[in-house]
Amino acid sequence: MGEVSGDDRDLFRWALDDAETDRLWHIELQGDGEGELDAELFWPGEEEGGTSGVSTFGAEPATEADGDTSLLTLSVTSRNDSALREPLIVPPGEHFIRFLPQTTGGEYRLTLTSGAGINIRGSVGPDGADDIAIESGRQWFFQLNLPDVIIPLTLEGDSRQLWRLALVGELGASVEAWVTDADGEIIAEAVEGSPLQQQWGRLDLTEGSRLHLRRAEGKPIGRLGARIVEDGRRQGEPSAAEEVVEDDREKDEILIAGSPEARHWLEAGEEVSLTMERNERRYFAFQAKEGVALTLGAIAEDAENPLQICLSATDSSDDVCREGISKSLFERMSLSAGDYALALRRRGRDNEPVDYTLSLKKDEPAPEGWVARPNDAREWAFPLMAEVPIQGHFDASGEAWFALQVTGEAQQWAISTEGESPLERLSLYHAGENSAFLDNRGTRRGEQDLWLEHVRLLPGRYLVRLVGEETNYRLLASPTGKPQPGFEQEPNDEDRDANPLWLGESVQGSFHSAGDHDRFHFHLPGHNRVLIELEPPEGGELDMRLEWQGETLLRLSNEEDSVRLDPMLPPGDYILMLQGGELPGPAIARESPSPILGERKNYRQRRCWKCAWKRTFSAWLPLRRRDSVWARG
């Protein structure tokens, strides 16, 4: 992690030995959502004059050596705060990474992660060659110690099968690749990459097709990864296997897209009619282009048998699924350019066949400031920028995921929502963890929007999950500054996260939901009489529980007035738990009052050095409005 701006440059060394290069690598660059910068991976060249590395005062800053070999560059901007390159085949040795500001620069976080292992299946060299081929359905890795290599493609399937060929070359090797048929005619045009990372889709390959590889300047190609899989069928008459029909279907019905290998490719503006049995599946695909918004819909006369549609990139298993009958089930999608797969499944209890019409059409892009693509799953999280509100819409009961990148020093954050109808849940996750560490569930009465405040976040990536139904919503994440003494810090719902409570100092906090528990920790070195003063929210109520060594010593419930307690307590560590009730108040930005507790006249004094062990108080409370909670011990 670091920051660059102006003429600043950050340089890091990445050294890998042979044992660390027998696997694929993933490199991810994350920005702060405001600045623009590049991360360049390179090999340094020889510096002229053999400088000693000692700079002279007043001299111009040193520039990059002319012989540097640039391997790859990742870029982040205010509109795209993350960049990922995967998978990568990295050779052993020393690699260098420099961070270069563009315009304003900014803060960054770079992550290098090792992935699946590389198992060499064969090699080709000047002294001999294995009998190698790329067979369909498997991942292949080869060691190619020649500058020119031709590899046969071995295919299994009927003559109408289309294919997808994916290639991964070694870092630092500029390799050109193309595909021909048995007669040498071009099937896939030549592409060149350094490193080579190429996918060709919907290839009409025939028996005898071959992959051609060439590296300039006579250098060896190095390691190569290759995989070929089915990618749909050519349009035309069905094969014999597809002419099998169910007893209750018309004999002239053609069963299309019945398997992932036979998926049907949709074009923008196309409609496809389907008759599907209960739980039957169909498979489709389409190509998205940069700057073109698409809407995908499915309609039927029988709305009681909805259709489930799962969307994913063709080379990924991370999908996002929606269920229903609508002309705009996936509306105004501005997807990254590439190929996408669709998996359909008929839902409902009716065993009778149902007719559907699946459509894909061009549409107007979503307005500025609105979610512009599906984000129903954590893997599809939409970027959430600090202080930049984002709007979205729930057609039916669903969820939306957002990615928040926190950089710099630890700060407190406030996250708020607004909805035309009540929202159900707002949750905050650490990236990579399945359980939320902070949660706000709406009440059944639905009298308020949802918020989280006083949340202390360290630098890193966080996920925000919002749940709602048939409503527009607005989401905002705002940093509120460094943690200040005298205020609670979320998360503090568990004993392990309890905030410190210092004797003689007051603490102000608030409840963000009906189930919010705020916990505080303090320590007594010996037997002491302790004065505890509590001020519930104005017009609301408060529960309090004092725990010592796992035992509840004191419990108060439904307190509407300020309370003053002075029990005699034994030495040890204590957890003071406060809980509120239903909170109809709006979201985050608010300046709380700061009353001086000693000047208040309506304290209810309780002498209870013995009542601490009587446990005579119990109940839960509803809070009637959201406000501050003050405590002083």
Q: What would the principal axes of the Cα set say about the shape?
A: globular
Number of helices: 0
Indicate the proportion of strand residues.
over 45%
Characterize the biggest β-sheet.
6 strands, mixed
Task: Tell me, rounded to a whole number, the average pLDDT.
Answer: 82
The SS-based structural class is: mainly beta
Helical proportion, percent range: under 10%
N-to-C span = 40 Å
Question: Would you tell me which CATH topology of the largest domain applies?
Answer: Jelly Rolls
Number of domains: 5
Low-pLDDT residue intervals, each spanning 5 or more residues: 48-65, 239-254, 582-633
Strand order of the largest sheet: 10-9-12-19-14-17
Architecture of the largest domain, according to CATH? Sandwich
CA radius of gyration: 31 Å
Please report the total strand number as a whole number.
Answer: 49
Supply the CATH class of the largest domain.
Mainly Beta
Question: How would you describe what is shown here?
Answer:
The chain has no helices and 49 strands. It has 633 residues and is mostly beta strands. The chain folds into five domains: 2-46 and 65-117, Jelly Rolls (Sandwich), CATH 2.60.120.380; 122-233, Sandwich (Jelly Rolls), CATH 2.60.120; 266-363, Sandwich (Jelly Rolls), CATH 2.60.120.380; 378-481, Jelly Rolls, CATH 2.60.120.380; 495-589 and 598-632, Sandwich (Jelly Rolls). The radius of gyration is 31 Å and the shape is globular.
